[in-house]
Fold this sequence. Notes:
Elements lengths: L1 H23 L13 H9 L4 H8 L25 E3 L3 E3 L10 E3 L4 E8 L5 E4 L1 H5 L1 E8 L2 E3 L6 E4 L3 E9 L3 E6 L9 E6 L1
Parallel strand pairs: 1-4, 2-4, 3-11
Antiparallel strand pairs: 4-9, 5-8, 6-7, 6-9, 10-11
Amino acid sequence: MTRLLTVLMIMAGLTVPAAAQDAATPAEGTAATEAAPADAAATEEDDDDDDDDAEGEAEGEAAVYDAQGKFDYGFSGIMARDNRTDLAPLTLASGQPVAGGEYTLKSGGFYRIAINADGSQELALSGGDFFRHIWINEIVINDIEIRPMGVHSIEFDNAGTAVISFIAVTPGRYTLSVPGSSGESQQAVFNIQ
């Protein structure tokens, strides 16, 4: 009997916050409350001490928060096919440059890049710093989709193609390079803005 009462009390406790959220949610199309003039707002900010919020709620004023994002990506979100940018492919071939130039990416952008190996030599691309500053959606190899939690390098023993789709996250300058090489042409540089 006490177990049943405990379960009922827990269930009641869990539904109360949800009901409170539904009641506090404003209807669509309502506008945010009007802001005070700039000079009045500046003086209020100087003397601000959380008492103002309690007074506004007590008077029945409900705050409306606009949670719309900066971009409207549509139903599929940021990873919709029309939001994706295909980058120039990387090449792994003996004696050939990995990339034709530096890549400039936008933080929050959805990208796809192919890595093509010709099989002339066993080669890899390593770049833990790059892989830590992007979110990898998937790596596709021979129509096999891999959704990894983390990647440090990709190695090709034979000819083939790997396609990585990812979202650039942290701004900075990152490289993918052939391990053990020191030449500028043996790396791909990614500038995330």
